[in-house]
From TrEMBL:
Ca(2+) 2 binds at T202, D219, T221, D226. GO terms for biological process: cellular response to oxidative stress; hydrogen peroxide catabolic process; lignin catabolic process; response to reactive oxygen species. Its cofactor is Ca(2+); heme b. It comes from Irpex lacteus (Milk-white toothed polypore). Pfam families: peroxidase, Peroxidase_ext. This is Peroxidase. Ca(2+) 1 binds at D74, G92, D94, S96. Residues 1-18 form the signal peptide. Binds 2 calcium ions per subunit. One of its GO terms (molecular function) is peroxidase activity. Residues 68-343 form the Plant heme peroxidase family profile domain.
């Protein structure tokens, strides 16, 4: 009898282990999905819809890249300096880029974003979520589709009321490092944090700087959130991929597009060492990006008034490589190191013939 009840107990314990219960204080949203705050369940239908119908089945391709870019172009529309002078400085991450897309996409730095805003607005309207929340949500979901991507914080609850951002707040590829640093400093980002933000260019391409080479990526692996952007941007440029105008400088690989602004910041004495430090250690790069993106997503917002719905953001596919490498045919001899304090690390060269980088398509 004693033996039998012990056996029952063990069997019961095993059953409890076999069917793991969700952690304490979790809300069941149905469909095997759990969140800490019940208000976050409402984001799962938005997630499913955009993964299927905006990101073509959870791809890290053009629309996901655009979603990430949009988080910046919405949030950077904010100026504390203007507010100090008694002018309206914009609302930051307030969704004004969608609410007033006709106005804001006419700004030079937002040229071409009208296709993005047109594609995104119907999803926000259909799910009755605020434009400000939707921009940051879509960016976080989009970049979670990239191999080795970050899992960005997502806070919900931004007001849907906004006013059009003033013009000339979004940095342009023709801007000097100094101008970009000053612009971002105005909203609380140091030059080092600008480098962390620019990690986004590891999953990026250009369509509008030179439309003849639309889709030309900024590194050789635009659907992987890897260290390649930092490595390849430090290689000597050899040829233009486009017409060499509008903020393009020479790149080291045929088909790869290099922005003058990235070139300048990667070699600026204030940021060159931080840039170089991101050519290795994928986990470090991702964690710095997650930190700085949490700040970007709440520019002009009070985070204490928002609800943490980060548990709705998918866990990204794991990184396949955790350090940068030289593209075929390249070596340390091709590096233009601008960091005086630290030697450039030793990296492997990828085997195989020199190939050109293909454009990113939708
Ligand atoms: C700080 C100065 C920055 C400048 C001057 C800059 C400039 C640019 C330019 C010119 C493009 C190409 C757009 C096109 O022609 O289609 C681009 C693409 C992109 N940028 Fe930036 N950017 C900056 C910072 C950022 C930041 C902070 C983020 C996000 C956190 C970001 C995310 C992206 C993404 C994801 C793309 C790729 C879009 C696509 O492939 O469709 N950028 N950027
Ligand atoms: C947000 O504001 C826009 C107008 O800018 C409106 O069309 C939309 O329905 C609003 N969304 C919500 C959730 O209130």
């Amino acid at each position: 009898m004693a033996f039998q009840s012990l056996f029952t107990l063990v069997a019961l314990a095993a059953a409890v282990v076999a069917v793991p219960a969700p952690q304490d204080a979790q809300v069941n949203c149905g469909g095997g999905r759990f969140v800490k705050n019940a208000a976050c369940c409402a984001w799962f239908p938005v997630l499913d819809d955009i993964q299927e119908n905006l990101f073509s089945g959870s791809l890290c391709a053009e629309e996901a890249h655009e979603a990430l870019r949009l988080t910046f172009h919405d949030a950077v529309g904010f100026s504390i300096a203007a507010e100090r002078e008694g002018q309206f400085g914009g609302g930051g991450a307030d969704g004004s880029i969608l609410a007033f897309s006709d106005i804001e996409t006419s700004f030079a730095a937002n040229f071409g974003l009208d296709f993005t805003t047109e594609a995104f607005i119907p999803f926000a309207l259909a799910h009755k979520v605020s434009f400000g929340d939707f921009v940051q949500f879509a960016g976080a979901v989009g970049v979670s589709n990239c191999i080795g991507g970050p899992r960005l914080q997502f806070l919900a609850g931004r007001s849907n009321n906004s006013r059009p951002s003033p013009d000339n707040l979004v940095p342009e590829p023709t801007d000097s490092a100094e101008k970009i640093f000053e612009r971002l400093q105005d909203i609380g980002f140091s030059p080092i944090e600008v480098v962390h933000l620019l990690t986004a260019h590891t999953v990026s391409a250009q369509y509008e700087v030179d439309t003849d080479v639309a889709g030309s990526p900024f590194d050789s692996t635009p659907s992987s959130f890897d260290n390649q952007f930092f490595v390849e941007s430090l290689l000597k440029g050899t040829a233009f991929t486009g017409n060499g105008q509008g903020g393009e400088v020479t790149s080291p690989i045929p088909g790869e597009f290099r922005l003058q602004s990235d070139f300048a910041i990667s070699r600026d004495s204030r940021t060159a060492c931080e840039w170089q430090s991101l050519v290795t250690n994928h986990a470090n790069m991702v964690s710095k990006f997650e930190t700085v993106m949490a700040k970007l997503a709440t520019v002009g917002q009070n985070p204490n008034n928002l609800i943490d719905c980060s548990d709705v953001i998918p866990v990204p596919p794991a990184a396949k490589v955790t350090t940068g490498s030289f593209p075929p045919g390249k070596s340390k001899a091709d590096v233009q190191s601008a960091c005086a304090a630290t030697p450039f690390p030793n990296l492997a060269t990828q085997p195989g013939p020199v190939t050109s980088v293909l454009p990113v398509t939708a």
